[in-house]
Design brief:
This protein is an alpha+beta fold. Helices cover 26% and strands 24% of the residues. The strands form two sheets. It has a six-stranded mixed beta sheet.
């Protein structure tokens, strides 16, 4: 058994405290989202996008099925959100499925001081993520290694790293 007063003498505890103090969201109003489970984050990222777009005058309704999150001006929108990973070095958008029923994928980038919304049509997402290297590896495959296309993809980087990202409003 390990008691609370003992953990303060562990190096791993010291490392955890230092990591928390280096969190770029430590004084951010967005910190509340960082501390949520992935499922809850997804729910709130969807609500943030919905409320933002409604304030901009877009017609936003609930989805027709579980393959997309909202319908915006008649277009099926799938929403993927990320906060900065590591020490604020990159975003990671996960569980990107090119087989789902959507027209536009929205990439939510939550910085400590702002939220930026990017997007790409389904065809552009497919073209950029269903990619194999010269050895036959699926570059952006998320599950099961790189040799098999699992149907779920992941991308790591900053929005500027993806020349195929557009501002979301340009696609709606």
């Amino acid at each position: 058994m390990l008691f609370a007063e003992e953990i303060v003498n562990y190096q791993c505890h010291e490392d955890a405290l230092n990591e928390k103090n280096n969190d770029p969201y430590i004084n951010s109003p967005f910190r509340v989202y960082k501390e949520m489970s992935s499922k809850k984050k997804g729910k709130y990222f969807e609500l943030i996008v919905e409320q933002y777009l409604k304030k901009q005058g877009y017609n936003v309704t609930k989805s027709q099925n579980s393959d997309h999150d909202r319908i915006v001006n008649g277009k099926k929108l799938e929403i993927k959100g990320s906060m900065l990973w590591g020490e604020g070095t990159h975003f990671r958008w996960q569980q990107i499925r090119t087989s789902q029923d959507y027209d536009v994928m929205c990439f939510v980038a939550i910085y400590p001081d702002r939220i930026e919304l990017y997007g790409a049509t389904k065809d552009v997402v497919k073209c950029n993520l269903e990619v194999q290297d010269d050895r036959g590896n699926w570059i952006y495959n998320q599950h099961g290694g790189k040799r098999t296309n699992s149907g779920a993809f992941v991308i790591d980087g900053m929005p500027k790293d993806f020349g195929w990202f557009q501002y979301l409003e340009e696609l709606l």
